[in-house]
Structures are given as C-alpha cells and as structure tokens.
Amino acid sequence: MSIKIVTDSNCGFTVEQAEALGIEIQPTPILVNGEQYFQEENLSIDKFYEFLTSDDAKVSTSQPNPYDVAERWRRILKDYDEILYMPLSSGLSETALVIKHMAETDPEFMGKVYALDNHRVSITQKQAVTDALKMIKEGKTAAEIYNWLTDTANISSIYIAVNTLKYLKKGGRITPAVAAIGTLLKIKPVLQIQGEKLDTYTKVRRLSDAKAAMIEAVKNDLETRFAEQRRAGKMTVCIAHTQCLDEALQFKDELSAAFPDVEFTFVDPLSLSVAVHIGPGALAAACAIKY
Known about the structure:
The protein is built from 12 helices and 13 strands. By secondary structure, the protein is of the alpha/beta class.
C-alpha cells in the first residue's frame, strides 16, 4: 500500500524540505488585518514578524479551508492508496477535529484517509512526521502508523520562555494590568504545552533562570512520566525559538550536556501559530518519544 503524508505548516519543515522527503504541506492561513497570507507562498517568516511587531497590524491564524484540504486529498488519492494527515494539535486549533470528522464520515475518504490528532505542534509535530516516514519505509500501513502515533500522543512536552508579555496581552491570554505589572517587574513567564493549550509553568526574571527552569522541567519529565521510554532509548530532546537562533544554538549545548544519553534532534523556528501568541525572542525546550 502506498502512503502519502500530508502535514501542515506548523510542523517546521519548509516546502523544499517536504518535497525532498516526499510529503506535502497544507498551509495554515495567517490573517493580517483580515487579509489572508500563506507561509512561503506570499509570506516570508521575516515579513510575518514585521507584521507581528507592528502596532498597526492585527495578526492571527485561521483554519485551512476544508474544501481545499479535500481537493488535495482527491488529487493525492489518484496516485496513492492511503493518506496520513498530520495537523497541528486540536488543543491549539480546531482544524484537527474538523478534518478528522471529514475523513471519518465522508464515504469518499473513509478507509483511505487517516486524519490524526496526536496533540503535537512545531518540533514535536516534526518528530511525529519523522517517525511516520520511518514506519512507511518499514512497510507499515497507514492504520498501523495512525495507531502508534495515537497511542504515544501524550509522550511529549514543550516548555517556552517568553521574552515579552506584549503578545500574551494582545491575544487576551493575560490582562493589561497583569502585563503592566509583569513588565515593570521584568517577569519572564515560562509556558508549557502538554499536547493542549499554552499554560503557565513558572515565572522568572532572567533568561538564564528561564533556561534552567526548562532544563529542570524536561529532566523531571524524563525521570518520571517518560522514564520507561528514556531507559529504552526512545526519547529525544529538541529546541525551538522565535527569531533568536544564536541563543537557541547556545541553549542546544546546555540541553545536550544535561541529557547526554538522550538523542538531540532539532533546532527549529517555533511555528507561526504559536509565535502569534508569544512574539519574537522566545526560546523553547522539548522532549518527545521517537519510533
């Protein structure tokens, strides 16, 4: 059975990288003052941050049009037997649930399209796609890959040190008063994504403290929730960032030194769907199971 993976632009792969791997990317719409853009089509990452940091632009994300998704599936199914659709976590967007419903109820796609919701985003989503590609090479069916990714959905976590409270305030995740007090006290929140929404993990005042808090959080996960997978050599660690690559590369050395027995995989930009809420200068550490 031939299988085609379709993921979305939250996964961290560029279109060029996706083409080289034989996968397709369904672009996630970015809205700027109501006008629709797509990453790499008519919106570069630099231009996205230019919009995001402008006081004159209202930036948000939207859902892919189900009609466009269905048209892509129809085209692919002319050449492939099955599709594994791997979008952003439903905890951060309703897209996964909408598309999953379409795959499971439309007779045209039932039994041919496996629409996943394994609660991943950015670097952990990229790891899931990497795992799926490996399983395809081993001859696994789309159903087998879907089941493994579903069963291991919660074996990942992301911790994000935010550089400014401005974007959390703009998105309504904190009140203007809390943002003002936090800015005055130079507070840097460390957020977490445990497969669902962005939540607060802790608060610090310096980047060095934020990095230490993230390393400690990953350490706790690897020693408790994911201890069995770590002993089996099945865990990875990785880093993401928003417009601070040099800091991310330095952090890579610290994270790798903290967990020498765990494979280090990616240093990637955080997905734009997350960057909308946290702005530039953010740094993230993550761990995730690997196949």
